[in-house]
Write a structure and sequence with these properties.
This protein is an alpha+beta fold. It is built from eleven helices and 14 strands. Among the domains are: 57 residues, Uridine Diphospho-n-acetylenolpyruvylglucosamine Reductase, domain 2; 95 residues, 2-Layer Sandwich (Enolase-like, domain 1). The protein has a five-stranded antiparallel beta sheet with strand order 4-5-10-6-7. It has a four-stranded antiparallel beta sheet with strand order 11-12-13-14, with helices on both faces. It has a three-stranded parallel beta sheet with strand order 1-3-2, with helices on one face. The longest helix has 20 residues.
């Protein structure tokens, strides 16, 4: 790990100022991804701006149309929230399946989304539920937030404040996970939303993406059979020691079928 300067602001404004004054600074949320990268010397920030002490960035609010979760809310808090379980059960189950207990009690929703790991779970919920990312500068539609591997629409110095998930008619998330890390080799979030069916895939490519052919099929009939014969091309999908691109393509269809079945109940 390289040397860095540690800061712990108590307000969003203070954090934003620190980031603006230090071009190579990084935001530290739960640290479950950044600290590991720093230990491996894959990341070399000059400063760490620890936002864990900013109370305004934590909490869960639910109204008749949406669930809004503060960026510093831990995965475990989402998983165990009675309000989230009632409004969007699939989101609570997704949070419960992230990593292990330590990761769920340290990792945050804002950190996960900002990091945009190719196999992270929350990005699938963002696309699947047509979520909006609220930052210190603006509101960003989920469809335009994830740009590629570890790349998002966030600008330098911009901090995620909260994420708003519209409440769907029904939804489910199913993943085929790495047995050690519990990262998704392939995860599929399916939702029947006010804008129509959504199918978001994580773990299969460099970044989360929508399976639009499956969405079109579900518009006609929201049933597992509608996606059973739809295959996502293997070209461009991840291929590594855990699974080939062809196997991941196969898993997308399998997980999509299971997710639709789970959403129907």
């Amino acid at each position: 790990m390289y040397q860095f300067v540690y800061h712990k602001p108590t307000t969003v404004a203070e954090a934003a100022t620190l980031l603006a004054n230090n071009a190579d600074a990084r935001v530290l949320a739960g640290g479950q991804s950044l600290i590991a990268a720093m230990k491996l010397r894959l990341s070399q920030p000059s400063d760490l701006v620890d936002i864990s002490g900013i109370a305004d960035l934590r909490g869960i609010e639910v109204d008749a149309t949406a669930v809004t979760i503060g960026a510093m809310t831990r995965h475990a808090e989402v998983a165990h929230s009675a309000d989230v379980k009632k409004a969007i059960p699939a989101l609570a189950l997704l949070a419960h399946g992230i990593g292990d207990r330590m990761v769920r009690n340290m990792g945050t929703i804002g950190g996960s989304i900002a990091h945009d790991d190719p196999a992270a779970d929350y990005p699938a919920a963002v696309l699947g539920l047509v979520a909006t990312i609220n930052t210190t500068k603006r509101k960003i539609a989920g469809d335009g937030f994830f740009k590629g591997m570890y790349e998002t629409a966030l600008e330098p110095g911009e901090i995620i404040a909260s994420v708003s998930f519209p409440i769907p008619k029904r939804a489910a998330y199913v993943k085929f996970q790495n047995p050690a890390s519990r990262y998704a080799l392939v995860g599929v979030f399916v939702a029947d939303t006010a804008r129509g069916p959504r199918v978001a895939v994580t773990g299969a490519a460099g970044s989360v993406f929508r399976a639009t052919a499956m969405e079109d099929a579900l518009k006609a009939r929201f049933d597992p059979a509608s996606v059973a014969n739809i295959t996502v091309p293997a070209e461009g999908l991840n291929s590594d020691l855990h699974a080939s691109a062809e196997y991941r393509a196969h898993l997308i269809t399998v997980m999509a079928k299971r997710a639709v079945a789970a959403a129907i109940g």
